[in-house]
Specification:
Organism: Plantimonas leprariae
Strand order of the largest sheet: 15-21-20-19-18-17-16
Keywords: DNA damage
CATH superfamily of the largest domain: Reverse transcriptase/Diguanylate cyclase domain
Number of strands: 21
Oligomer: single chain
CATH architecture of the largest domain: 2-Layer Sandwich
Pfam family, one: DUF6504
Protein name: DNA polymerase Y family protein
CATH topology of the largest domain: Alpha-Beta Plaits
Family: Belongs to the DNA polymerase type-Y family.
Length: about 500
């Protein structure tokens, strides 16, 4: 099932101006309006949040806006610059999916089919996308659905920052949205309102022929595109300096073995292009243009720069089964959307030294199947607080030589959060006699401790007096656990004196 995400930047012109020209734009607390010409009149074409909250609206004459809101900042709109910046933004968004295009005047469209698993699912992907834009000073909303039209409508008219329309539920989700959600021109929307049509459902329930006769074919086409009855291909944006190879076929192809054969040929051609530039691929996008103009895509990534034809071909061919060739594929394009310098490496003879095991190939296969973010290893952090003494790093990140101290053993499994337990112990320094965890009571047979851990007062003032006493305990079944008391057992300012289970020894 095809999935498409639409990103809407409701204040793109004003947000872009404040982000790129801070010296020209007024402060954020000053209302801002961008104006353009409508015939002989100067009217508002973009508003920031403060101006909209003050009651101004798009299309309002500039003189009226200034009269209603003294102190209003008025600057000239730059639609050409906005459009060019939107194209650059689409190129940046290629990191989320191989098929991204600008959706003028204030949005992007992203074909996320087969790419969402690399970002921990659609919800996590939308959240990450919106948060990245918000952090850059660009207000953003996003929606994902089965079609471009449905995703576009959900992002702009559903009233939430992130909207996920379930597969096959596009018609029901659009039924209650206003007719403007169909991407119609303002005149058509106004005429529909005059006739009493308020929602998409009102229009969709009417016979098609009278609507076509009255409004032309555009209304019916937009309905069919939103509901998936008519395809709406996305023409992906490409960087001008992108390393890319292309193969067109006189007759459409569709057999998996044929696709795999030409994939290998494209990889060989791409590596030949990368070699004189001294580059290796970190991310490859293989795009298939079908006879119906729909674009299917495969994306694979590598943990290190690679120019090995066999290795890259294998990664791409592992994903061929996800491609729907439809009635045939006319064109295949392979692009290195992320490439990094790849220097020469000295080969070491096994007679001189034992060659190091190369795990990069295995890591790449696993990362492309389950997602790069789900493949990691742990590394130590200089901290006495157990939950802060470990961090996740990439599977092939270099070892910096750091290690955990071995004064006291640490459990092989540390719980994500310490879990409270019921227990009984003699204060202040004795281990518990028994404890109840997750409804099961365990009698303590052996114990070692306490190991006192103080709070990091130099990081957090609230931890100036806090302390924990950790114990290693073993129950009757031979299972070993890591318990701690919050506090020193004597002074209430050091903690609540409650007990928690923090880890399990293997």
């Amino acid at each position: 099932m095809t999935r498409v995400a639409s990103l809407w930047l409701p204040r793109w012109p004003t947000d872009r101006l404040r982000r790129t020209s801070p010296g020209t734009a007024p402060p954020a607390e000053v209302p801002l309006v961008l104006v353009g010409r409508d015939g002989n009149r100067r009217t508002a074409v973009a508003l920031d949040r403060a101006a909209e909250a003050a009651g101004l609206s798009i299309g309002m004459p500039t003189a009226k806006a200034q009269a209603l809101l003294p102190g209003l900042a008025v600057l000239e709109a730059d639609p050409v610059g906005d459009a060019a910046a939107l194209e650059r933004l689409a190129i940046w968004a290629l990191r989320f999916s191989p098929v991204v295009a600008a959706d003028p005047p204030d949005g992007l469209v992203i074909d996320t089919t087969g790419a969402d698993h690399l970002h921990d699912g659609e919800e996590a992907m939308l959240h990450r996308l919106v948060e990245r834009f918000d952090a850059s000073g660009l207000e953003a909303r996003a929606g994902v659905a089965d079609t471009w039209g449905a995703a576009h409508a959900a992002a702009r008219f559903a009233g939430a920052r992130q909207v996920i329309v379930d597969e096959g539920a596009g018609r029901e989700a659009l039924a209650g949205l206003p007719v403007a959600a169909l991407r119609l021109d303002a005149r058509t929307v106004m005429d529909l309102h005059v006739l009493g049509f308020r929602t998409v459902g009102d229009v969709a329930s009417q016979p098609r022929a009278p609507l076509t006769q009255r409004f032309g074919p555009a209304l019916g086409r937009r309905l069919d595109q939103a509901f998936g009855a008519v395809p709406e291909p996305i023409d992906p944006v490409r960087s001008p300096d992108l390393v890319e190879v292309r193969r067109a076929f006189p007759e459409p192809i569709g057999a998996p073995e044929t696709i795999a054969r030409y994939t290998g040929k494209l990889v060989a051609a791409l590596c030949a292009e990368l070699e004189p530039r001294g580059l290796g691929a970190r991310r490859l996008d293989l795009l298939f243009t079908r006879v119906d103009n729909r674009v299917e895509a495969i994306r694979v990534g590598t943990s290190q720069p690679v120019r090995d034809v066999r290795r890259l071909t294998r990664l791409l061919c592992d994903r061929i089964e996800t491609v729907d060739p439809g009635f045939g594929i006319e064109t295949m394009r392979l692009a290195a959307t992320l490439a990094e310098p790849l220097g020469a490496k000295q080969a070491v003879s096994p007679l001189v030294a034992e060659p190091e095991a190369d795990l990069a190939g295995l890591v790449d296969v696993l990362a492309n199947r389950i997602g790069e973010r789900r493949l990691y290893r742990f590394a130590p952090v200089a901290s006495d607080v157990p939950e802060r003494s470990v961090t996740r790093i990439g599977a092939l990140n270099p070892d910096d030589g750091a290690a955990w101290h071995d004064h006291w053993p640490r459990p092989s499994r540390l719980l994500p959060r310490p879990e409270p337990v019921e227990t009984m112990a003699l204060l202040p320094d004795h281990p518990p006699n028994w404890f109840r965890w997750r409804g099961v009571r365990r009698r303590v047979r052996r114990a070692d401790g306490p190991e006192r851990v103080f709070g990091e007062w130099w990081k957090r003032e609230a931890e100036l007096t806090t302390a924990r006493d950790y114990f290693r305990v073993e129950d009757d079944a031979g299972e070993r656990y890591w318990l701690y008391r919050e506090g020193d057992g004597e002074h209430p300012e050091t903690g609540s004196q409650r007990w928690f289970l923090h880890g399990i020894f293997g």
